[in-house]
Amino acid sequence: MIPSDRQRLIAERYLLQRPLGRGGMGTVWHATDQLLERAVAVKELNLGDGGGGEEPARRQRRAMREARAIARVSHPNVVGVHDLVQYEDRLWIVMELVDGPSLAAHLATAGPLPVPRTAEIGLQLLGALAAVHAAGALHRDVKPANILMRPDGSVVLTDFGIAALSDGEQLTSTGALLGSVDYMAPERLHSEPAGPPSDLFSLGATLCVLGSGQSPFARPAPAAVLHAVAYEHPQIPDRLGPLRPLVESLLSKNPADRPSSSDAAAVLRPMAVPASPAYTRTLTAQILPTSPPRPRRRRWLRWAVPTAAVLLAGSVTVGFLSARTPVRSRKVTVSALTTWRLVDLPIHKGDRVSVRYLSGTWTVDSKRPRSGPEGFSSPQDAAVTAIAGGCKVNPDVPFAALLARFSYEKPGSNHSLQQHQWAYTAAAAGRLALRINDGDGCLADNAGTVTVQVRVTPSS
C-alpha cells in the first residue's frame, strides 16, 4: 500500500495540502510545486458520469479545452495556467494561486460595494473578457463566485470549468444547462448560439449583484428564475445609481442591443475609483475592441453619460485633484511568450518615462538558465545565439533583455533595461510597449514572466 503522504504527491511534483473548494467538475487544492518551490492551485477534475449521460471521455475533452482556453490568455485579470497533468486516471490543472476571497464571499461579509468600486471592478472584468474572447474562448459562467480578489484590490476571473472554444466541438450533454441560471444569457436558455455578448450579459448581472447585493432575476423558485431571465424585465435596484442604465443595457434580451466592451468601458471609466489610494491598477494589456456604431444602442448611452457626469459633479474637487496627479504609474507583467506588451499610460512630448524591474525571471531557451531583465551573461548569450541564429529583435543587446519602444519611433528602434532600470524623455506623444529580446517566430521555447513598474512624470 502506498503511504498517505505519497498519495498526495501528484506526478512527483505537486504536493496537495488542503482543499480550497469543491464544484461540479472537481476539487481545487492548495498545493506546492516542489520543483519551482512555489504555492499553486491544483484543480482535480472529476471525469466520472457528468449527469445527463455525458460520458467521461466527453468530459475529459471539455476539461482539456478548459485548460487550453485559459492557457491562450495572458492577462493580469485572468487566472494563469501553469501545467496540465494526467495522473492516476485523472486530469489535474495547475494554476496560479490567488491569495484572496471570491467576490461572493466578500459580499457575504462586507455587503454591496460602492458605485465607484463596482465600476472599477467592471473595467477590470471587461479587459479580462476582451482577452478571453480574443483567444477564441467564452467564459460562460461569469459571476461573483468565480471572481477572486487579490490583496491589492484587483480581481481575477477564474473557474473556466464550462468554458468552450468558440470554434470547438460542442461538448455539453444534450439538453443540459451548464452555468448559473441567475447569470445566464437568455439566448443560452433558448439553445441559441452564444457569443461574447452572452458573457457581457453575465457581467451585467454580476455588476448588479456587486453594487446592490441583489440579483436582477431573484425569484423564490428555480423555474421562476428561468422564466425571469428569458422573458421578464430585470429588477435593478436604485442603489446602483449611475450604473443602472449600463446594467440595464447589458441585460437586454437581444444580444444585438447590448453595448460592446468598448462602449461599456467608456461609461464605467469616469465612475471608477481604485480600492484604495495605494492601489495601482493592474495594466489591461488587451485593447478593448472597437465595434461599428449601432444606432439602436445609442438610447442607453445618452442616458448613461449624463448620469456619470452628475456623479462626477458631486465630487468635482476629487476629480480635479486626480486629473492633476503629477506622476502616473502602472505595474506591468511581461510574458516571455508574448510579442510587444502595450503599456496603457498616456505619454506626451517631454514626459519622463521610467521602467523599473520588480520581480520575475525568464529565459529564451528552455535549456538555458533563467535571467532577469538585463539578459544573459556574455558566454550564455553567445551559446544561445549559436542555436537561435538571427532571432534577436535588437541584435545589439543580449537575449533575455527587456526591450522598450515608443510608437512614434521608427520600426526597429528600441531600448533595453540596464542595471534593472531604464529612463527616457519622450521626444513626442506616443505609447510605450515592452517585450523580451526574441523574435516573433522564436518564442516557442521561451518561459517565464517579469514584472516592472512603469512611471510617467509630466514635463510640467
Topology:
Elements: H1 4-7, E1 9-10, E2 14-23, E3 26-33, E4 38-45, H2 56-71, E5 81-87, E6 90-96, H3 103-110, H4 115-134, E7 137-138, E8 147-149, E9 155-157, E10 164-165, H5 186-189, H6 196-212, H7 222-231, H8 244-250, H9 261-268, H10 298-313, H11 316-323, E11 328-335, E12 341-347, E13 352-363, H12 378-388, E14 402-406, E15 415-416, E16 421-425, E17 430-436, E18 447-457
Antiparallel strand pairs: 1-2, 2-3, 3-4, 4-6, 5-6, 7-10, 8-9, 11-18, 12-17, 13-16, 13-18, 14-15, 14-17
Helix pairs in contact: 4-6, 4-9, 6-8, 8-10
Would you kindly provide a written description of the structure presented here, covering whatever features stand out?
- The chain has 460 residues and is of the alpha+beta class.
- It folds into 3 domains: 8-97, Phosphorylase Kinase, domain 1, CATH 3.30.200.20; 99-163 and 182-273, Orthogonal Bundle (Transferase(Phosphotransferase), domain 1); 328-457, Sandwich (Jelly Rolls), CATH 2.60.120.
- It has helices spanning 4-7, 56-71, 103-110, 115-134, 186-189, 196-212, 222-231, 244-250, 261-268, 298-313, 316-323, 378-388, and strands spanning 9-10, 14-23, 26-33, 38-45, 81-87, 90-96, 137-138, 147-149, 155-157, 164-165, 328-335, 341-347, 352-363, 402-406, 415-416, 421-425, 430-436, 447-457.
- Strands 1-2-3-4-6-5 form a 6-stranded antiparallel beta sheet. Strands 11-18-13-16 form a 4-stranded antiparallel beta sheet, with no helix packed on it. A 4-stranded antiparallel beta sheet has the order 12-17-14-15, with no helix packed on it.
- Helix 4 (115-134) runs antiparallel to helix 6, helix 4 packs antiparallel against helix 9 and helix 8 (244-250) runs antiparallel to helix 10 (298-313).
- The N and C termini lie far apart (73 Å).
- Residues 1-6, 164-176 and 276-325 have low confidence and may be disordered.
- It is an enzyme of class 2 (transferase).
- The chain crosses the membrane at residues 300-321.
- This is non-specific serine/threonine protein kinase.
- Keywords: ATP-binding, Kinase, Membrane, Nucleotide-binding, Serine/threonine-protein kinase, Transferase, Transmembrane, Transmembrane helix.
- GO terms for molecular function: ATP binding; protein serine/threonine kinase activity.
